Amino acid sequence: MTMSIRFWGVRGSIATPGPETAKVGGNTSCVEVRCGGTTIVLDAGTGIRALGDALIREGRAGVVTLLLSHLHWDHIQGLPFFVPAYLPGTRLEVMGPGPERTSVADVLAEQMKTPVFPVRLQDLASQLTMKDLEDGETFEAGAARVTAARLNHPGGSLGYRIEYEGFTVAYATDTEMGDGVDAALVELARAFQAAELGNAVARALHPLGGHLGIELEGMPGDRHPAMVCGEEIE
Questions:
Q1: Residue of 32, 58, 37, 68 whose CA lies nearest to 47
Q2: pLDDT tens digits, residue range 30-40?
Q3: How far apart, in whole angstroms, are the C-alpha atoms of residue 228 and residue 179?
Q4: Are 18 and 26 in contact (CB under 8 A)?
Q5: 3-state secondary structure of 2
């Protein structure tokens, strides 16, 4: 049995369709990790819509584990369009970092309330469960073992380490390293070869200011992983 990874959305802050992004797509964050017969979805940006359609076509929508890195809009906005969430035969487990004074379930319900969206979260027909995760928590997702690690991002963010049959992948999208390397990120990705990790960090850049066309210097959270930090991790 093997692990396979497919990127359904790689953009940050806002979906960017058009010829400029046609090579790798314009959808916001969503990554599919297949561990044998286990389906794990990382983030629910706009890319999760097409993923949902593919799962149904391939008959793999029965059990889905959705791991949210954090609850910023570009990482959750696709969930209302994830068709398996509307199917009674789908068991959908959603997990992510519980924000202070609320929960993952409350935040996801908020974006689907009237008048924002015509279907409420509680009206989804799937067998839906929600769980707030803690830093360092380890759990089983089907045949895979998952470890969550707290990263440095406004509102709270988690990175995930997924292990299956000798294969390992680390997912850490939004984290500010400041002037040094985030020790949690190093530990999360400790099994990676240096070049793989450095390239992954470098390609993860999507600062908000670049999308808005303005300077956000000094604004908390205006920086995402810096390329120089990726080199240091190498």
A1: 32
A2: 999 999 999 99
A3: 10
A4: yes
A5: coil
